[in-house]
Here is the input.
Amino acid sequence: MISINTNSSSSLASMNLQKSSDLLQKSLARLSSGSRISTPQDDAGGYAVSMKLSSAVKRTQNASANVANALSLLQVQAGSLKTAATVLDRMSELATLGSDVTKSSSDISNYCTEFNNLITQLNTLAADSFNGVSLFSGAVGTLKVYISQDGAQTMQVSQANLTGSYSVATAYSSVTAAGVSTLTAAVQALATIMATNGAEASRVQFALDSLNVNQVNLEAALSRIYDVDVAAETSKLARANILVQSGAAMLTQANASQSIALKLLQ
Here is the structure.
């Protein structure tokens, strides 16, 4: 039917053109931002999940940094313990040398001087710290390390009692063979502390590896939800672009069809 008041063909063409234009704008927005969800209305559920995953990724990154710092603390602690072991070894040598019957009292006094200086060095090592945090304590202490991004899992890192491992040896005012057994016990106590340090460092390293793997998997999951598939979206863009151009042409034709009514009135 040819009418003057209503042009249903034009209205339909205009509606289809608007839909095609919306599709084109959506594809342009996705490709320009790199995100499949440019606005929450694109995928409300996916947007909510992506927010939680994004937050989990950031927490995991920071948890990894914290755990790496804890590993660094243990590594610095291990270095101090190795030095302490070397010092105790030398103290054991001095105690053995002090039992030599050919040594004069002056020789023994020299050994004793070195022995006492080594005790001072051990006390210096016992006061070591990492970024202001004591590596050792007067009594066995612990530091809590959070090894999961949600804070649900923790482990303890020991602040070993380094002073206690050699405290008996400091009672000797002179170095004699009798002190060897005491120093041997001190070496054994230090070896136990070093073993604890190694076990804790091993666990912290595994926790760090786990966090790194979780971060990669979380980022992959977030990408599948939030990132745009460029290949698929460019196909949609091409389709929407053709529809917009053809829709505009058809709208022009629909508007021109009203001119037929004028010819009939002439």
Observations:
- Strands lie at 129-130, 133-134, 141-146, 154-159.
- Helices lie at 8-33, 44-97, 105-126, 162-166, 180-226, 230-256, 259-265.
